[in-house]
Specification:
alpha+beta; 438 residues; seven-stranded mixed sheet; globular
């Protein structure tokens, strides 16, 4: 087995015996890893079941995501990985630029033992019973207590018989044939091995060329994504194109109040003891007030902080702002180019979804949609008033599990929130008032 680790400085070999079947290890900061119970046994039904559980967690359309499923353990839980198609192609391009074609691919965090943490360059890897991943050390501290103090450099114990907890090379990325066993390929490898031995006399030149090719591939992907939405105004250099695409996404999406509320509602469902006691808009930030036992609040707060939106903790309150930017400044050129491509892929996916978003052309349209959505949610006593620019709505009493989805549906119908206040009434019941424009 040939275990190869992707790093910001290139591809590095791990394991006792380089050569043979290529197994790619990627850092995994662009992969979401969940340990889920899947009831079905056939591969097709397991994939459909996993897609059903993932769709609510995804920050972009499900059709843009590649989902891979690992084998079930003795308890029936399987690791499920979610990564965009763009990022998968980017990883494969990076290995191809180094002369390697992986047969298997695994995120680095899943090579840790359960409860393990490790450092990989500027990332901290973690693995728990429910989640795994690679993130900034400060965020990992919220997911695994004492993560920074326990972390050691990433040195997995791997060999020919090491099982893969998951293989990302599934579905459209699965190898179609065992070309590595064909004699023409083996002869070609032999010739390349001789050539590689000769080229080893000039490692500096080889490394620089590989790095340039990888950067060119990432930058080309970033410019291509930006051109789909910016057209002739797309900047020539990839860094400016990524920034322009992010600004276009921000203008089109607005405050994304509905997306934030959907995320908050999902995370609260995972920790039933915690509940929402208040929400209010402060500019374009959401102040979220949580209630429940202290241990439940301390469980849900790190989950919210690790999500797709930037979060500032204020005791048991949080301020939730815009989507977390994946654009970076400085650092190695390969890492910068790869992060720009990831950011461009996320922004392009959101812009593509917004293209199909309904348009409310008048205040009358907004009133009609608001009334229909609130009635469907069971808020028959909601009071809807018109203003010169939109509507004001008061809901005397509601449960969070019904209120938050209704607000998200209203934004999805084309409304833009201008004000929002959710206050506790007691017994986990809330009153809500908000303003919106077409």
């Amino acid at each position: 087995m040939n275990w190869l680790l992707e790093t910001t400085s290139g591809i590095r070999a791990l394991g006792p015996e380089p050569g043979g079947t290529v197994i790619a290890i990627i850092p995994g900061d662009d992969v979401a890893l969940h340990h889920l119970w899947l009831n079905n046994t056939s591969p097709a039904r397991r994939l459909d079941e996993a897609r059903g559980q993932i769709i609510d967690l995804a920050s972009q359309p499900i059709e843009d995501l590649h989902i891979a499923i690992g084998p079930a353990n003795s308890e029936g839980k399987s690791w499920v990985a979610v990564i965009s198609h763009e990022n998968m192609h980017a990883h494969l391009s990076l290995f191809a630029a180094s002369g390697h074609t992986p047969v298997h691919m695994v995120p680095a965090a899943l090579l840790l033992q359960e409860g393990g943490v490790a450092t990989l360059e500027d990332l901290l890897l973690f693995r728990t019973d429910d989640n795994a991943g690679a993130t900034e050390p400060a965020l990992a501290e919220h997911l695994v207590a004492g993560a920074i103090d326990k972390a050691q450099p990433f040195h997995p114990a791997i060999g020919d018989d090491t099982p893969l907890p998951i293989d990302l090379m599934q579905g459209p990325f699965a190898p179609t044939r065992r070309w590595w066993r064909e004699r023409p390929f083996q002869l070609c490898v032999g010739g390349l091995a001789v050539l590689a031995l000769l080229l080893a006399l000039a490692p500096g030149l080889i490394h620089a060329r590989q790095e340039r090719r990888a950067v060119q591939a990432f930058d080309a992907g970033t410019r291509q994504l930006a051109s789909r939405f910016l057209g002739s105004s797309t900047p020539e250099d990839a860094a400016s194109a990524a920034v322009a695409l992010a600004k276009a996404r921000r203008r089109a999406e607005g405050a994304a109040i509905g997306a934030r509320l959907t995320f908050i509602a999902h995370e609260l469902e995972q920790v039933p003891e915690a509940h929402l006691t208040g929400v209010s808009m402060e500019g374009e930030q959401l102040r979220v007030v949580l209630g429940g036992p202290a241990n439940a609040i301390n469980t849900v707060l790190p989950r919210l902080a690790a999500g797709p939106f930037t979060v500032e903790r204020l005791g048991t309150d949080i301020l939730m702002a815009d989507r977390r930017s994946t654009l970076v400044e400085g650092g190695p050129p390969v890492a910068l180019a790869r992060q720009q491509l990831v950011a461009a892929g996320n922004d392009a996916a959101i812009l593509n979804a917004l293209r199909n978003k309904p348009a409310l052309h008048s205040i009358a349209d907004l009133v009609r949609e608001t009334r229909a959505i609130l009635l469907k949610a069971g808020f028959n006593d909601a009071v809807i008033g018109e203003t010169g620019s939109g509507v004001t709505v008061t809901i005397p009493a509601a449960r969070a599990r019904a209120l938050l989805p209704a607000l998200a549906d209203l934004e999805a119908a084309g409304a833009r929130f201008t004000a929002l206040s959710v206050q506790p009434l007691g017994n986990q019941t809330l009153s809500a008032s908000f303003g919106a424009t077409p």
